[in-house]
C-alpha cells in the first residue's frame, strides 16, 4: 500500500533525487551512500583563530553538494533525515561525543533572518533536529539548543574570501539570555550544514564561549560537526 501511494504521489508531484536528479525518488541509494563515508577531522586553510575541532561526514562536491543545495535553497525538506544522519555520524566521530557522559547539546549556527524568511526554513536547525533524533535512537541523550542569534546585519558571504568572511562575521553572533544557563547543562557541539573557510563556526564558538555561564568547563571543550566541508579542508586530515 505504501509503495502504491508513493507511485500516485510521484505521478501528481514528480520528484527527483536531490543528488543526481534520478526521477521518482527523493534520494537514490547511490547518493545516499555518498553521505555514509567515514567522517574525519577537517581544517580549512588558513584556519581562523578560535575554530574548534571540526568533523565532517563528507566532502562538499558532486552529489553531496547537490543534496545540500537542494535542501537549503530548493526546499527539498525530505532530505533532512539523510543529512541529519550524516551530521550525527560526524558528531560521534568528534571528541565531543562521549557516549553516556551527559547530554549532548547541539547548537546550530543560525542563518540570517532574511535568508531564513526567503527560504521558509532554517537549514542548519532542521538538520540539527534530525541529527539529534538519530543520536537519541542510538541511546545518546541529545538536545538541540538554538541559542545563537545575529545581533547585527552581515553581508552575503557568497564571493567573499576567508579574511573577508572573518571580518564580516566578527562579533555578529550572541547567545540569547536563556541560553547562558542551558549551555552549562551538557557537552556542547556546534553544528552546521557546511564548512568552507570556518569563519561561521569560529564566530559561533567565540559567541558561545563569551555567552556561557559554564566557564572553561564544558564550553572550554567545544567541538563542532558539519555534514560537509570544502574538498581541500576534507583532504587535509592533520591530527
From TrEMBL:
CDD domains to which the protein is assigned, alphabetical: PRTases_typeI
Superkingdom field: Bacteria
Similarity field: Belongs to the ComF/GntX family.
Alphabetized PANTHER family for the sequence: DNA UTILIZATION PROTEIN YHGH
Name this polypeptide is given: ComF family protein
Organism annotation: Streptomyces atroolivaceus
